[in-house]
Amino acid sequence: MKKKRWVVKLGTGLLTRKDGTTDSRQIGLLVAQLAKLIHDGHEIVLVSSGAISAGMTAMRLTQRPQTTTGLQACATIGQIELMSEYQHHLRRHRLLGAQLLLTHANLDSRTSCRHATHTLEHLLAQRRFLPIINENDAIANEEIKVGDNDRLSAHVTNLVHAGTLIILSGVDGLMTAPDGTGKLIPRVTTLTDSIRQLASGTTSQRNTGGMTTKLHAAEIAAQSGAQTIIANGRTPRILEQIATGKYTGTLFKLKAKADPAFP
Ligand code: GLU
Fold first, then answer.
1. Fewer CB atoms < 10 Å away: N or C end of the chain?
2. Number of domains within the chain
3. What band does 210 get if pLDDT is binned at 50, 70 and 90?
4. What is the CATH number of the domain that holds 62?
5. Percentage of residues of the chain with pLDDT beyond 90
6. Tell me, what's the pLDDT at 1?
């Protein structure tokens, strides 16, 4: 396991303002943190959501499209918008973003996985590129899509044998109450029924997932021995704090199961 190899997942809510428009300042702050880690010798693979939301903004839609085709079309436009944002900020740190769009079928195919791994290894070895992965929403329909980027990021973690999966969103971590209130649970070693009950799915016009998919992700990532950290991406310098081990968030150190409950 490569200790300094991290997969970082950024959720839509983190990359957008309250009105749903892309939050360029916030993306800039996150890219600055990622750039510092890369320049410090970390190998980072980014999994970024936000394409559909960015597409909604560009297309001036206030409601999330209700049809698969509508969502797919939205993603085709939004993905370019999103990548332009990343590229703009990355260049300021002498880095370049490298886009990979994956589907569930790719993850199921040994050949595709091998190609994806080779490409990622090639990019990471050069220390000046940031691979940015999203689901290939344009061609993923209900039957074939991974569905949420929490789980996609966990599969990517296994693909590149990363030591840590960091899921950043607008919440501090897993809380003692299912509605996200109460106290933060700093460490989880077993996904008991009561832990699962604390994670209630949330969706909105722009976001997918919620705590449930994050728990699934931690479980999937554990299959390759990776730990998962859920933390608030709006906390200043959160990635730096995680690198030093002093951060507010929930660390999942789960044992791999022979038969994953959430394949
Ligand atoms: N692939 C979707 C997008 O870029 C996001 C899915 C998710 O956030 O889980 O909008």
1. C
2. 1
3. confident
4. 3.40.1160.10
5. 77
6. 38
Q: How close is the Cα of 56 to the center of ligand 1, in Å?
A: 12
Q: Which atom of ligand 1 is closest in space to residue 206's alpha carbon?
A: 10
Closest CA to 246 of 237, 254, 257: 237
pLDDT tier for residue 2 given thresholds of 50, 70 and 90: very low
Residue 237 tokens read as 């310098």
* Ligand 1, atom nearest to 49 Cα: 4
- Alpha-carbon distance values, 130 to 51, 62, 161, 168 (Å): 17, 31, 16, 17
Alpha carbon of 156 to ligand 1 centroid (Å): 15
Residue 198 forms part of a structural domain: no
Residue 175 Cβ < 6 Å to ligand 1: no
Output the CA 229–ligand 1 centroid distance in Å.
Answer: 19
Per-residue pLDDT band for 197 (boundaries 50, 70, 90) equals confident
Q: Is residue 200 part of a domain?
A: no
- Parent domain of 127: 5-170+187-192+216-252
For residue 131, report the distance from its CA to the centre of ligand 1, in Å: 16
Q: Give CA–CA dist 26/170, Å, rounded.
A: 12
Ligand 1: does its nearest atom lie under 6 Å from the Cβ of 154?
no
Answer yes or no: is 209 within a domain.
Answer: no
| Nearest residue to 8 via CA among 131, 188, 109 | 131
- Biggest alpha carbon–alpha carbon distance for the chain: 47
